[in-house]
C-alpha cells in the first residue's frame, strides 16, 4: 500500500537477527532484506527464555572448550522427519521442500520472497534436531545433516559475499558447523575428525577468513561474529584466531555498552539481548582459556540496572526502537529479578527515575511499596543522539502504563522488509510526539532541563526536525492523581501542519466530545483514558482519530513483526507557522469524572484538574515550564 508521507530515497537495505536468550541458550530469529549492506538484529519475544544464571565467580580456565550455542529455536519447527524429506520451515511460511530428498538443496529457493526465510535457510540452524540426534549416536541423522551442510559448502564456495543471505548468516552458520563437528566426534565416539569430514574443518577455516575480513563493527552483530571466530580458534587450536576475536571483544564492549549501562543499539529489545550476549562472551572466553577482564562484567552490571528501570509496570520493556513486546528476564541475583517477577522475588531497587545520556528517561510512581507493582504508573521518554542502528525517529516520544494496562504505546516493530510498513514504524508518525508533516530529519534531541520532585517530574526537550523548524516538548508527570501533562511548541519559517499524536492500544475504542476531549476504553474494562486538548494561546482544532488506515499508513500496532493490529491514534492538530498544543493524558477508573478549568495569573495559565475526585493545579509558564502547585 502507498504511504505518501513516508516516501524515501533510502537505499540501505537491512538485515535482521532476532535473538533473545539466557547466557547458555540464545534464542534467535533472523530477518534479512535483499541487497543490504548493513545487518540488523531483532529480539524475538516468542522464544522461551529460561532465566540467565548469575555470572559465576572466576574459576580456573578450561582450555579448548567451545559450547555449541544451540539453534535459536529455529530447530523446533524442523523435526528430524522433515530433514529426511529436505523440508524446511521458518516463520509463517508453510513447510517447504527445498531439496530433492537426498540432501541436494536448492539454496537459491525463496518461494515467498521473504528475506528472513532465506537468511535462516542459509544459516543451517534448521538442522539443529538432526545434529543433536547425530551427537547422541543416530548415524542416519548425522549422515543427513552432514550431507546438507556439505551441499551448502559445495554450492556456496568462498567468497559468498555476493549473496546477502549467505553473507549475513555467516556467524550463525559458523556455530552450526562447530556444533556439527562436535556431534561427529561424540556420535562416532572418536577423538579426531575422520578424514571423510576433512571438508568440515576446511569450511570452518573459510568461515574464519571471511569473519576476519568482514567485521560488522562494535555492536551486537560484530559481537556475534567475534564469538564465532573465537569458536573456530578454540575448536581448531588456532591462538591467532582467538586473539583477533578476543581483541575485538575487548574493544567492542566499550562501545556496545556505555558506562551508564546504555547500549548503542537504540532499542530496548536489543539492550536485553546484549545483556545475554555479553554474558555468553564471558563464558566463551573463560572456557577456552582467555581472560574476559573486568570491563564486560562491570558494563553488564550497569545494563542490568538500566533494564530494571526500563521495565514497565506490566513487566515488559517499552517498545523503543526495533523492539517487539518482550518480558524482562528476571535474572537471579541482579536487580532484574525484582523487576522481572513484578516484585515477587529479589531486592527492590531504590532508584525511581533514570536519566541516561544515550537518550532515555525511565520513570515510575514506585516499585510497589504502597500499591501493587502492576498498579504503579511507568513512563519512558526519548531524546539524545540522532537515529542509528535499531533506533527509530522517536525523539520526544513517550510511552505510559498505569492502572495495570498500557495507556500510550509505541507503533512497534514491523520487521526488516524494506517497505512502507517498516518506513512507517520507524518514522515520526508511529510514535507519541508532535510531528511536522514536512520534516524528514532524524535530529539530535537535547534534554534542556529536568526537575524531580516526590509527586511530579518535569522535563523539557528541544530539537530541529527539519530546516527552519524548531520543536520543544515539556512533559510533567504526576503521582496521585497519576497523569501526564504535555506542552508541545513548534515554530517554523513557513506554514506547517503540526500534530500531537497519541497512540493507544488496539483494544481501545475512542469517543470524541467537542474539540477538547477524547475518551478511550476497552469495552467492559474498568479503566479508561481521557485525553484532553486544552486551549493554550491558540484555539483548539477538531480532534481526529485514525485507526487501521493504509494510505497513508496510520493507526497500527505491531506487538511482534508478525502481529499487526489496527490501533487508534488521537490527533491534536495545528496549522500555521506556530503551534502550541497542551495535552493531558489521564488514566482513571471507567466511571470516573475528569474535568478542568483554566484561569490566568499574570502571564501564567493555571490548569485546574479534577480527576476522579482528586484536585490538582498545574501552572503553565510562557517559557514552557509546567509546575504542579497543588
From TrEMBL:
Compartments it resides in: Periplasm
Keyword Cell inner membrane on entry: no
Residue ranges of domain Heparin-sulfate lyase N-terminal in the record: 101-272
Cellular component terms per the entry's GO annotation: periplasmic space
GO molecular function: lyase activity
Residue segments, region Disordered: 40-61
Keyword Signal assigned: yes
Residue stretches spanning the membrane: 12-35
Pfam families from the UniProt entry: Hepar_II_III_C, Hepar_II_III_N
SUPFAM superfamilies linked: Chondroitin AC/alginate lyase (SSF48230)
Alphabetized UniProt keyword annotations: Lyase, Membrane, Periplasm, Signal, Transmembrane, Transmembrane helix
InterPro entries registered for this protein in UniProt: Chondroitin_lyas, Hepar_II_III_C, Hepar_II_III_N
Protein name stated in the entry: Heparinase II/III-like protein
Organism classification: Bacteria, Bacillati, Actinomycetota, Actinomycetes, Propionibacteriales
